[in-house]
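Quick one, T. Sequence first:
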Amino acid sequence: MSEAEVMFTSDLTSLARTMEFAAALGAALRAGDLVLLEGGLGAGKTTLVQGLARGMGLASAVKSPTYTLVHEHPAARAGGPRLGHLDLYRIPTGRDLGDLGLEELLGRGAVVVEWGARLFAPDADALLLTLEGPPAGGPEDARQLRLCGRGPRGAELAALAVAHLAPAPQVP
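Structure tokens:
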């Protein structure tokens, strides 16, 4: 792990907690931010994107762009960032994705990529989020979240996420 990386694991114990976390992170997103999501089918990647959109103040419905590959949601306020939402489930790993317009999307807003490992971007300044769950014997809407911030902005977003996920100090 380099100086510019932050790694953390946390349990998201409910759908409400997942949405709360994602909304807090979404409020911090700005144009040029890249968030890569990983996790199996049904892990909650699209739900997390819905929470990010809520935190960004976006009113449009967020659905997974599995067949269209890319959805772009307008900014909530003048001068605010748009949300680019990509789903690479149907794209083979390592394929050149230059034709998806990632650079243009990043210029206009924050970009979230489901199945982000399929995006060949080894040096990208990004926040990587991996969702797993539900845990054996746990609630159906609980998830385990692993995050890693790569590069200066990715590490900054990871630190913000960790601060939000860390348990509140106990008051005696």
